[in-house]
Structure formats: structure tokens, C-alpha cells
Design a protein that fits this description.
It is found in: Membrane. The chain is α+β, with helices and mostly antiparallel strands and about 475 residues long. The chain has a single domain, classed as Cytochrome p450 (Orthogonal Bundle). Helices cover about 55% and strands about 10% of the residues. It is built from 18 helices and twelve strands. A five-stranded mixed sheet has the order 1-2-8-5-3. A hairpin with a 3-residue loop joins strand 10 and strand 11. Helix 10 packs antiparallel against helix 11. The chain is globular. The structure holds protoporphyrin IX containing FE (HEM). The site of protoporphyrin IX containing FE has 27 residues, from helix 6, helix 9, helix 13 and helix 18.
Length: about 475
């Protein structure tokens, strides 16, 4: 008995000594570590004006040239460390992701809903992510091919005529409908219309000035968010009454039970549905708009894509048979165009995390509470990883990029669960676009607009017409 007590006392002493030693060493190493190079700009506003008064990519690239792959700055009221190397992105997003939590502006959390998975870390995030991943996996979305085709064809048909289309706005309609399809399956059209109407009011509030004044985008967005919850409640009630077990996202969320047999609340379900719509719509629409532009600007490449797609079109007896999942997985030229568009456009130029403790990386200190931003676009446009990075060249994807140099869908615990669906949508859209339609971009201005994702200027105004089949 005495021996046991002695061993316990010794173990406790050892533990205490180890803790004191370890903590001291940790503190010492943090004391030794210095902040990364960089400039913090003016008090409070920091370098926000410099960032927003120029192309953000020029801002980041200039800093990277001056300070290297890791540098500090101060934007939007927060001290930040920016990371422009694949190793650093891996450190923050993958290997040491527990030291960094996701962070979003408060308004996003308010409008989307605080239970949406991307605001979380740890057990709740893990659980929600598993639920969201299932209905977005290749096994589930292979059943959506025909429905996505129908959406793409009917959208393209509606663009034909002498009118000028805002390509991005039209692509948003498609990506919204595809999001609805993945979430609810075939949802009745009056619900789709109501969801669309209110979601479009909501999204105008995401970046608007917070105020209680009636009639402002912010106030309208708050009311629209309430109505969205009510619509979702009605849809959920109907589902429950039907007692049908669907495999779409709503079905998975409704049937989920945790270890204690607890189901998700309606609030948690609504926040995650709105979260998925938010994550799916502008992202996919921006990339599809860029694909149209890149193909338009490179007639030789367009011919190659057309040839690949026409072969599939002919084997389906000129679209008398629907596209198959297998066909969508065998479009090598078009697939490389999709990848190169994702790289060139890098529509998610960077992401935000926040250090939950003092972190040391490569001798630099990232203090607790500081924002950390892996700069995807700078990595995608670094000539060390992609030669002649400003050239649109899908053939570069004949060889796989080096690890962590190509992250259009992020990486690690928060990486995009919708990437297979997004790619499928882009491939189906391109198939129908190039086999049956032609288009010309209107206006000679070329440039980038941020809203907030980079899109071609004015959403790429274009005219479409049906190609003669003779
Ligand atoms: C081309 C289209 C898309 C791009 C470029 C894209 C990109 C990304 C990126 C970079 C992230 C990670 C952000 C971070 O680490 O902070 C992300 C997360 C996410 N994406 Fe996508 N995405 C696209 C389409 C979609 C679609 C179609 C869906 C769903 C139908 C979707 C659902 C999500 C969700 C739910 C998350 C949060 C995951 C988590 O926090 O665990 N995305 N996306």
C-alpha cells in the first residue's frame, strides 16, 4: 500500500516538473520567436485602405515579394499573418488545424445561422461534416446527372436571342437550383421560388451596413432570413408527415441521431441548409463564368473541347439519350479546362483562421487571437509551382500539381465537401454549351470585378445563339 502511495506521489511530482519545464520551454521559445516581417499600417485601420484601393492580388503579391512567404499586416481591424507557401497552408489547414479556428464576420454568422458547420471546430463540426458529405459524395450525386442536365439545357435555351445576358447572374440561377436539388431532391416549384426570392434578399445583406432602419438591405435581409426559416419549417413538417426516407441532404439531416439518440434541432438544420446554399451558389457560378470567358478567348482550345464533347453528343444520338455519370468522368480535355479555370480564377483567393493559442511557425510567432490567412491565389500563381502562371494552359494539368500547391477547394478538416458536385455541374454545363450553342462576349472591356469573388467585369455580358445542326 505504502509503495502505491509513493509511486503516486512520485508520478504527480514528475508530472508537475514536466509541466513547469515544458511550459517554461514553450514560453522561452515564444519569447525567442519574433513576429513575422511586414507592416501594420495606420492605427486601427491598418492597411485596409491599401488592400481595398487596389487589386487585392497586387497587394498580396507586392508584400510577398518584399517580405517573403510569411508576413504580417493589419486589415479590417485585425492583426493578420499571411501565408503564401504550400507548407504553411498545410500547417494551418491540415497538420496543426486544431490550433486555428475558423473565423467569419459576425454578419455572416447572423444571416446564415450560427449552427452552420463552417463556423465550428471539433465534435459538432465533425458530426455535421459527415452528414453533409454523404449526399454530396460521388455515390449520391451520380443520381443527379439527368436533373442537372435538364437545368443546364433549359437555362441555355432561355439565353438564346438577341438579348445581352449577364453571364454571372444567369450562372447563379443554375448553381442555386443545383444546390436546391442536392438539398431537397425534386422540390415543388412554389417552394423553390420562395426560397430563391428570400435567399436573394438575404445575400444582399451579407456585406451591407448593419442598421435597424427599415427598408435598408440589412433590415430586409433579417426579415428574409426569418421567412427562410419558416419555409424550411413547412418543408420539414411535410417531409415528416410523408414519413419518406430521402437520401438528399435534408433527409440525412432529419434522420441524424447522435450517440445519445438526440436528433438535430430545426434551427441547426436550417442554418446548415442556408450554409450550403451560401457555399454553393456564387462560388460555382463564378468559375462557370470564367470557363465561358477562357473558352471564348481561346478559339483553338474551344475547338478541342467541342470535338471532345461532340463525340459524346454523337454517341448519345445527338442528346436523345441523357449524359451518363461514366461519360462525365471521361472528359479529359474539358476536365483540365475546369482545373485550369479553378487555378487561374482562384475565386477563393484566401481563407481566414484565428490562432487559438500562441503558435510558433518557422521561428515566427503567431500570437493568440491573430487572424491567419493562407493565400491560395498566390500559391496558384507562383511560377515555382506553375510555370508561366498568367497563361491559361489546361495542359499543365497533364501532370499532377505538387502537394498543397493546388487548393481551389481548400484543404484539411474544412475543405470543400461540394467539390465533386461543383465539378459535375461545370462539366455538364460545358457539354451542353459547346455542343449546341455559340456565344460572343459583348464589349471590349476586360478586367476583374470583386463581388466578393472575382468575376469578369460586369458579370461577362454575352449573347448566345443556337448552332445550326446541319
Ligand atoms: C467551384 C465551386 C466551389 C469552390 C471553388 C469552393 C471552395 C471552397 C473552399 C476553398 C472551402 C474551404 C474554405 C476554408 O477552408 O475556409 C469550401 C468549403 C465549403 N464548401 Fe465549397 N466550393 C465550391 C462549391 C461548393 C458546393 C457546390 C457546395 C455544396 C453543395 C459547397 C459546400 C461547402 C461547404 C459546406 C464548405 C464548408 C466545409 C467545412 O467547413 O467543413 N461548396 N469550399
Amino acid at each position: 500500500m505504502e509503495n502505491v502511495v509513493l509511486i503516486c506521489v512520485l508520478m504527480t511530482l514528475l508530472h508537475l516538473l514536466w509541466q513547469v519545464f515544458f511550459r517554461k520551454n514553450k514560453r522561452d521559445s515564444h519569447e525567442r520567436a519574433k513576429l513575422p516581417p511586414g507592416s501594420m499600417g495606420w492605427p486601427y485601420i491598418g492597411e485596409t485602405l491599401q488592400l481595398y484601393s487596389q487589386d487585392p492580388n497586387v497587394f498580396f503579391a507586392t508584400k510577398q515579394r518584399r517580405y517573403g512567404d510569411i508576413f504580417k499586416t493589419h486589415i479590417l481591424g485585425c492583426p493578420c499573418v499571411m501565408l503564401a507557401s504550400p507548407e504553411a497552408a498545410r500547417f494551418v489547414l491540415v497538420t496543426q488545424s486544431h490550433l486555428f479556428k475558423p473565423t467569419y464576420p459576425k454578419s455572416k454568422e447572423k444571416f446564415i445561422g450560427p449552427s452552420a458547420l463552417f463556423f465550428h471546430q471539433g465534435d459538432y463540426h465533425f458530426r455535421m461534416r459527415k452528414l453533409v458529405q454523404g449526399p454530396l459524395s460521388p455515390d449520391a450525386i451520380r443520381n443527379l446527372v439527368t436533373d442537372i442536365e435538364v437545368l443546364a439545357v433549359s437555362a441555355l435555351e432561355s439565353w438564346v436571342g438577341n438579348k445581352v445576358i449577364n453571364t454571372f447572374q444567369e450562372m447563379k440561377k443554375i448553381s442555386f437550383e443545383v444546390g436546391i436539388l442536392a438539398i431537397f431532391g425534386r422540390l415543388e416549384s412554389h417552394y423553390r421560388k420562395e426560397l430563391k426570392k428570400n435567399y436573394s434578399i438575404l445575400e444582399k445583406g451579407y456585406n451591407s451596413f448593419p442598421t435597424k432602419i427599415p427598408g435598408t438591405p440589412y433590415k430586409k435581409a433579417l426579415s428574409a432570413r426569418k421567412r427562410l426559416s419558416e419555409i424550411l419549417s413547412t418543408i420539414i413538417r411535410e417531409r415528416k408527415e410523408k414519413r419518406s426516407i430521402e437520401k438528399d441532404l435534408l433527409g440525412c439531416l432529419l434522420n441524424a441521431k447522435d450517440d445519445k439518440g438526440e436528433v438535430l434541432t430545426e434551427g441547426q438544420i436550417a442554418d446548415n441548409i442556408i450554409g450550403v446554399l451560401f457555399a454553393a451558389q456564387d462560388t460555382t457560378a463564378s468559375v462557370m463564368t470564367w470557363i465561358l470567358k477562357y473558352l471564348h478567348d481561346d478559339p483553338k482550345l474551344l475547338e478541342a473541347v467541342k470535338a471532345e464533347q461532340k463525340a459524346i453528343y454523337m454517341s448519345n444520338e445527338e442528346a436523345h439519350h441523357p449524359l451518363t455519370w461514366t461519360q462525365t468522368r471521361n472528359m479529359p480535355i474539358t476536365y483540365k479546362v475546369v482545373l485550369e479555370s479553378l487555378r487561374m480564377a482562384s475565386i477563393i483567393s484566401f481563407t481566414f483562421r484565428e490562432a487559438v493559442t500562441d503558435v510558433e511557425y518557422k521561428g515566427y510567432l503567431i500570437p493568440k487571437g491573430w487572424k491567419v490567412m493562407p493565400l491560395f491565389r498566390n500559391i496558384h500563381h507562383n511560377p515555382d509551382f506553375f510555370s508561366n502562371p498568367q497563361k491559361f494552359d489546361p495542359s499543365r494539368f497533364e501532370t499532377a500539381p505538387k502537394p498543397y500547391t493546388f487548393m481551389p477547394f481548400g484543404s484539411g478538416v474544412h475543405s470543400c465537401p461540394g467539390y465533386d458536385l461543383a465539378k459535375l455541374e461545370m462539366l455538364i454545363m460545358t457539354h451542353h454549351l459547346v455542343t449546341k450553342f455559340s456565344w460572343e462576349v459583348v464589349g471590349s472591356q476586360s478586367g476583374i470585378q470583386y463581388g466578393p469573388f472575382p468575376i469578369p467585369l460586369q458579370g461577362l455580358p454575352a449573347r448566345f445563339w443556337r448552332e445550326s445542326t446541319s
